[in-house]
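Reviewer 2 asked us to include a model.

Predict the structure of this chain.
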Amino acid sequence: MHILQSQSQATRKQYPFILFGLLVVLAYASAVMYAAPVVSCAAWFVAAFVVWRWVPASQRKYLMIMAAMIIVMSITPVQTATTGWLPVFMLLGMAVAVALPIIIGKYVFKTDIIHLHIDLQKWKPIEFGYVIFASTIVPVTLFVYFFTTDAAHHWPISTAWDIALVFGAIMAIGMWEEFFFIAAIYGILRRYLHVGWANLLQALLFTTFLYQVGFQGWIIIPLLLYTLYQGYIYSKTNNLLINLVIHAIVDLFVFIALIAATFR
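Predicted model (structure tokens):
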């Protein structure tokens, strides 16, 4: 009975952090998926109130950094064009968003906020299994998506130079996604929440970003499952290298499916 009461109290202590996370998801999605700045601002206001009212001052700093990271991404012009100044601003915003926790942690809070946990040791059989499973299921879904929708038109490809740029962008952004959403956002959320809630919140934020870069329609549900899978793998292995390998393989198939659908 005492154990159940302790677990219940521990769960109740997480409520403000869960509410904060859900409000951040609402604010981000409202800004980038639905172009509803009023809703987004209101969600941020309520999230700030939740932190001020129910989160002890000693536990606020990481939440503030996470909020700043998501705000930067909310105002960053994420799109798939490869010409003009928008790609430059996109890269700048993404760089600032991922640099914030590193710089603030080192020079303001005097601590490491992001722990990459890249382990080069020999992998276990189960870790190879994680990679093989994702590399089998995801490509099929991607080919069905690109060949049954007009999603390929989100990426302007007409020349060999465009192909090279798109390939480089897909691979680079994929690596950034793992550092931002898994190492940083998920890492921060796990400081406050049970791994299940932390994984769900990072997956919702991760999927929202993928929607921004052109993955729209029914693919959102498989993408949510994929981002949950990536968080699950990181929680089990504590090795970001496995996530990076899986994401690189998945992005390679994204590129192949995209090119095949574009020039069919």
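The chain has one domain: 78-262. The two ends are 64 Å apart (CA to CA). We have added this to the supplementary material.
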